[in-house]
Amino acid sequence: MNSLSPDAARWLADAILALHVGVVAFVVLGMLAILIGGPFGWAWVRRPAFRIAHLLLMLFIALQAWLGELCPLTVWEQALRIHAGQATYNESFIQHWLSRMIFFDVPWWTFVAAYSAFAALAVLCWMLWPPRRTRRR
To answer: CA-based angle 98:103:106, to the nearest 5?
Structure first.
């Protein structure tokens, strides 16, 4: 990373933060879609690729919380911001708004409980509306 310019590091950190927001949106909105689409019979919410990706990602997030580990995306973003010479009070527009969407100042156990409950809900949805292949017409 030493050959990376501070401007490039800042740009990559913002890109990783945007990706992180996308992952959060996929997990939260995906769960909402499953909870609504399952009972209504929406076929796309039962597609195996979507459901496997959703469940594995949620289990990975919950496991990280139980182990007390930060998300790799957070670690990479922070390392890039340090390399770019950015401090927590000196943030870009993107960092300022996207960070506030996904990071909260609450005790760690709150995240462990929330992620565990969310993972349990994902497993329950898997049992209630299991993935299945759709037939091509």
So the answer is: 160
